[in-house]
Amino acid sequence: MQSLNETYSKLGRNGRHSLPDQTSGDKRQAQHPTVVVLGAGFGGLWATRTLAEGPVKVILIDRHNYHTFFPLLYQVGAAELEPEDIAQPVRKILWNHPNVRFYLGEVEQVDFWAKVVRVADQDIPYDYLVMALGSQPNFYGTPGAAEYALTLKSLEQAVELRNQILTSFEQAVHEMEPELRQSWLTFTIVGGGPTGVEFAGALMELIHGSLDRDFPELDFRQVQVLLVEASEQLLNGMPEALSDYAQTRLEKMGVEVRLKSRLIEVTPDEVLLKDGTRISSKTVIWTAGVQGSVPENQEGVATNRRNQMEVLPTLQLAGHPEVYVAGDLAGIQQDGHPLPLVAQVGIQTGSAAGRNILRQMAGQPPLPFRYQDKGTLAVIGRNAAAAYIWGRAIRGFPAWLIWLGVHILKLMGFRNRLMVLINWAWHYLFCEYGVRLITPAQTSFAKESTAKEVTRPHPERVIEGGR
Q1: What is the Cα Rg of the chain in Å?
Q2: Catalytic residue chosen out of the listed positions 198, 205, 229, 270
Q3: Tens digit of pLDDT for each residue in 126-146?
Q4: Which residues contact 96 (CB under 8 A, 6 or more apart)?
Q5: Is 205 tagged catalytic?
Q6: Which is nearest to 354 in space by CA: 133, 97, 47?
């Protein structure tokens, strides 16, 4: 196991800032405790920024070298934004925090008793730990969903989704059989929460704002976008009036909304609903739920039904007061209900975990966490959104303006804000989504199955006219 000095020397060799080494004679700096933060999402990043203001050494570990603004990830999948528009390099974010080091790597396991984090072949010791490893899709045991449905939990998945949508239209051009052509042009979105609603609206605007002009060979009356929701309304958690508004708006755009429809199986060519309905669809987008992302080899933690780590009210792990859990990974109950897995919870828990660690270092007791709900927003399309803020329901153009302002302000980095504004302005003025690119890398239309191997056509092959 490498020592802390060796770890910091390795991590800081190419960094913008360098921390004083313990051999430099700065004994005061050498005595600062080490806090390891796992994950550069909202929870981890806000914990890091809070801790950076204190007398600590911070090591931030993530498998990607960038922070993703997840609320706009669906717009990458809908060809409205480029991936780099909503991502910011972690090292750039840390420029003004000289006591923070970034480590690129996949967390394999945490040894709570030895107080080390295992990343590849290296053990990184800590005095305090913040676990903010985020979430992953929850398929609720639905057969075929993990193999054949696309998800929106990373930039790679968003680009894969964009490739699939565009490739489906290219394939439909050359498909002679009407039934197969229809399956290429049927897009099924599973889950009527904010992500599902927003993606359904964005997809319809992509289809009828740009693709209908790109593909004059196709009859766009065949294109179907279905939004399947198991409960009785869209946007659960919002007032019924906003749910009804979202449904009415989507249906006017051409989305077929199916409420009280539970999906029970996904195959390469269709989806099966609980009522026996079979929908021929080669594109299934899963937005129905997420769960905590606990390392596979992790031992010694209790998890809830959402695969989140059970924590004390102070966000500490029971039996390990030096370990905190933040973001989607933290199983928090408030007023008898679990907190939603959204960005605001990640930001607030990350900041609270950082403050509690600084309090512990100062000899003060950690404070219980209390979530402050700042509202829920969902954009539905051009000039249309639903907002529930401070107990007030707002819809239509005013809610749309609020949605725009909040997301621009929350984006990290001036360049990102500028590029997103330019893309949004272009779309608003010319009704065109500009990122309609199928990347040259091969993309699989469906993951391999033991029963049947199915692959998406290579983009170049589709363009050449192959089936």
Answers
A1: 23
A2: 198
A3: 999 999 999 999 999 999 999
A4: none
A5: no
A6: 47
